[in-house]
Amino acid sequence: MDPNKRPETMERITSPELAQAFIDEQLAALKKQIGQEKVLLALSGGVDSSVVAALLIKAIGDQLVCVHVNHGLLRKGEPEMVVKVFREELGANLVYVDAVDRFLDKLAGVDDPETKRKIIGKEFIDVFAEEAGKLDGIKFLGQGTIYPDILESDGVKAHHNVGGLPEDLQFELVEPVKLLYKDEVRVVGKQLGLPDSMVYRQPFPGPGLGVRCVGAITADRLEAVREADAIVREEIDKMNPAPWQYFVAIPDFKSTGIKDDKRYMGWAAVIRAVNTVDAVTAESVELPWDMLCRIRDRIIAEVPGINRVLWDISDKPTSTIEWE
Ligand code: XMP
Q1: Domain boundary at 175, 199, 223, which?
Q2: How far apart are CA 178 and CA 159, in angstroms?
């Protein structure tokens, strides 16, 4: 039997009971696979790695070492949330790495989107490998591979290509959710007691806010993206149902504004909200006018450097969902 093929008889996990049965089965399998060895896991705070972490904490407790790399491209409050949930509430052995300056240095002046992605991916692997190198006796690497990763990209997570770890850091893989679809991972995460904000987190690109701070990233514009994004999420979260994905992008240009009777140059925050089934095509979502006005007022009042708010009503195609 191919371990990377979902058996046709495998029931879709749609209920807490089915999730609990999956959890019980996986805990036994993980204990058997890992024994007394140690496991290392890159914990981004995304749904998949969070569910794998929660499963491994239950199965092997202290034998799991989680590494959270804060590359500065996460959304507001996310690194804090990872520490709170995993270290404080679940008692995980968590190494928190503040790599913000390191990423910003490497990205300084780089405006080509693919080069930015490559730098972010490579730097992530370098930081993670450095942390791994500091730890002794690790035999396994935990990964949040899910079934679509296997079907679509040879089992390699598109965003955190830990498959690219250096030769001397090759581990055996532990991939407890590799046969699950995303919706099933969420049901399992909920059953494991993870907070809704993690379990139902909207899709977020691996390079994070890096692709929404359009052009060459600067610390101040990146901070503006993070703050404006938090406002947009807070407001659009009130919609029921909320769109599939919604965020802010800030392009690398300034336009004229007026403050205290003086002209000044500021950035434009672009609101984007889309619905899609598979992210291959997407439709712009009609946001209520009063909501748009509230978002505009809050962004202008609360986010330094922004003097203009735009709404991107483009569909995919011809526009992609992200701006880069
Ligand atoms: P686009 O912009 O191509 O995005 O229409 C489609 C979906 O993919 C996400 N996206 C990414 N996810 N790494 C990722 O893990 C990336 O580099 C990346 N670029 C885009 C995007 O957020 C959307 O959901």
Answers
A1: 199
A2: 16
Residues with CB under 6 A from ligand 1: 117, 158-159, 203, 205-207, 211, 245, 279, 316, 320-322
Q: Is 180 in the same domain as 233? A: no
For the CA of 159, the closest atom of ligand 1 is: 15
| Residues near 239 by beta carbon (within 8 Å), at least 6 away in sequence | 287, 291
What angle, 0 to 180 degrees and rounded to 10, lies between the N-to-C axes of helices 113-133 and 100-107? Answer: 140
pLDDT by position in tens, the chain (length 324): 899 999 999 999 999 999 999 999 999 999 999 999 999 999 999 999 999 999 999 999 999 999 999 999 999 999 999 999 999 999 999 999 999 999 999 999 999 999 999 999 999 999 999 999 999 999 999 999 999 999 987 665 644 444 567 766 789 999 999 999 999 999 999 999 999 999 999 999 999 999 999 999 999 999 999 999 999 999 999 999 999 999 999 999 999 999 999 999 999 999 999 999 989 999 999 999 999 999 999 999 999 999 999 999 999 999 999 999
Domain that holds residue 116: 16-199
Tell the residue number behind the tokens 């490559």, with chain if given.
Answer: 118
User: Which atom of ligand 1 has the smallest separation from the CA of 319?
Assistant: 5
Distance (Å) from CA 205 to ligand 1 centroid: 5
CA of 99 to the centre of ligand 1 (A): 23
Q: Which residue's CA is the nearest one to ligand 1's atom 18?
A: 205
Verify that 217 and 97 share a domain, yes or no: no
Nearest Cα to Cα of residue 249 among 213, 285, 300: 213
- The answer to whether residues 153 and 274 belong to one domain is no
Q: Are residues 175 and 35 in the same domain?
A: yes
Q: Whose CA is nearest to atom 6 of ligand 1?
A: 279
